[in-house]
Automatic annotation (TrEMBL):
This is Mitochondrial iron-sulfur cluster biosynthesis Yfh1 (Frataxin). One of its GO terms (molecular function) is ferroxidase activity. Keywords: Ion transport, Iron, Iron transport, Transport. It comes from Andalucia godoyi. GO terms for cellular component: mitochondrion. One of its GO terms (biological process) is intracellular iron ion homeostasis. Residues 21-41 are annotated as: Disordered.
Length: 183
């Protein structure tokens, strides 16, 4: 088990992430195994701390916000703008309130698309990222890219937050929404 965790930690260290993350593994001791384990035989937990460094290709590296406040300001501004544009879309388009429900509460933007599922977009201060959950593209984490002034997917630097959201709204609702100059 220790070798498996070491391999996982090494593989994870090669990936593009920017802050310290903790991997938690829960295991139970097999009744047929007589070897002693570094964890409790009752299913205790242990953690392995791993430090990650981002190498997002789009920007030559992830923009390092000088302060937590700078990150919070940029992330909140982006999410507020998304909410404003999406809520405006619902208000301005006839019958849209039956297809799309948009809510923004406590820094979390929720979007429910009737018959498809829900989106969640929120800031994650510990990693200084914007997190995304979509019924179409799944979970993603976005780092800020100062060159494009957009948030770029931490695992696929060809994917940006605003064009992805625009594309998915167009696919689901058949509406072309403009998010330009929204960061």
């Amino acid at each position: 088990m220790n070798r498996t965790l070491a391999r996982l930690a090494l593989a994870a260290a090669r990936r593009r992430l920017i802050t310290t993350a903790t991997t938690t593994a829960t295991t139970t001791r097999s009744s047929s195994s007589s070897k002693s384990r570094p964890w409790s035989s009752r299913g205790g937990c242990f953690t392995v701390g791993v430090r990650y460094v981002s190498t997002t290709a789009a920007s030559g590296g992830v923009y390092a916000f000088p302060t937590e406040e700078a990150y919070n300001e940029a992330a909140v501004r982006q999410i507020n703008t998304l909410y404003s544009r999406l809520d405006g879309l619902v208000q301005e388009t006839d019958g849209m309130e039956k297809k799309l429900n948009v809510d923004y509460d406590a820094g979390v933007l929720s979007m429910d698309v009737t018959g498809v599922g829900g989106y969640v977009i929120n800031k994650h201060a510990a990693t200084r990222r914007i997190w995304w959950s979509s019924p179409l593209s799944g979970p993603k984490q976005f780092d800020y890219d100062p060159r494009s002034k957009d948030w770029v997917d931490s695992r696929d630097p060809s994917v940006f937050l605003l064009p992805l959201l625009k594309h998915e709204i167009n696919l689901l609702l058949g509406i072309d929404i403009d998010f330009s100059n929204s960061s």
